Amino acid sequence: MVHSLPGPPARAYEALMDAAWPAVERHDTGEWVLRAADGVTQRANSVWPRDTAAEPPDALRGAVQWYRQRRLPLIFQMTDTPANSGLNAFLDEQGFTRQSETLIMALPAGAEPVPAAAAGKVDILDQPDEEWLDLWWSVDGRGGHAEQETARSILTGCRALYALVRDDDGGPAAVGRLAQVDGTGGIYCMATSPAHRRRGFASLVLQALLSEGTTLGLDRFWLLVTAANHAAQQLYGQAGFKESGRYLYRQQRPRRPLTGC
């Protein structure tokens, strides 16, 4: 049985998202959590405004300095909730951009995932091996070997499983990751090689991860997908996932491009 998360839809996921995609470096101010990972992915290089800052201008100056020391742009990951309305208005005044709107999708209470048709052999791994990592990075990665190793640190920063689906010839076709956080399962890193798309491999990865999570006793599943990725939204909708909230990134003028998703 799958249960919905308690509390405000988007706000309830903030701690789960933070734990499922852990930054290499983090600084907790008591109000905001500043996260950095050498610029690899927006998620791991953004501010999580966990609590309302008593003095937003002072908090912002501290965040600017922290990210400047790391030669990174200042980015906020902001869920679409009333709790963030004041900070959003303040960032509007400061000229921060709005970008990368993302849906939070979850299996609703009582829903059972829709089985996928068999499309190949599924390997379930405790760690991302080179084959898994190379396929994912070839689709979603930005940068070279150093950035890929930073990404590996993020991926393995919390307990997770990794699915790799092979085609009939044994070649890697698609991958995905199941982060295990507080009894929930977060679906990440869904990627299919260009030569294997539209052949059911992504559905098989998703179903395999959900099945493994259920076996482990996880009672809730959720995932993140950009608002512009309609094909992925359709895939997840067919599996029973429904939108449960949204977030976007508020960015100060970037000093150099970030890498990854």
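Second entry:
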Amino acid sequence: MPETIPFADNSYVQFPTGRVNLAEVHAIFKTMPYELDYVDANDQYVWYSPNPWRDDDRLQQRLTHSVLGCHPDRVVPMVKQVLKMLHTGERDMVESPQVMDGHRTLIRYYAIRDQDNHYLGALQVTEDVEHICRLCEQDVFAHGIVEGQVVDGVTTASITGEDQSLEKSTKPDATTGASKKDE
């Protein structure tokens, strides 16, 4: 299916934190290394992120249908329970670690609420965390090297600049948590 990019002439989305146009919003969602799915307040599946690895045809067919119909029967009770907790405010986020296609995956469900705390829907964020788990298992943070970058072992913030030698000492910046080189 050819990619259709959303557009509106000279339209921007103005957020309190800045503005972006619709093509930029689309590109941001397409670039994120997560799968995002949005279910509205009526539990209808209404949006998904346009990532290249997703089955676009299958997801398009599910749009505007009940989210319960998008899941295998064996997990429908769990989906109902999650939605109930999000709807009622019992929980604002529910996590579900799983193994999918041989990869450790973390699925998070977030209640989306307006400024008056009214439930608008649920955002499902699915992330393959296999790479992160392997980094932790290799104790890479204790070693201080991640893919050729020196990492501050206290905050894990990358040290920028051309000189990234391990001999240079770093100390945490208590204000931001970022590290800076000793002068």
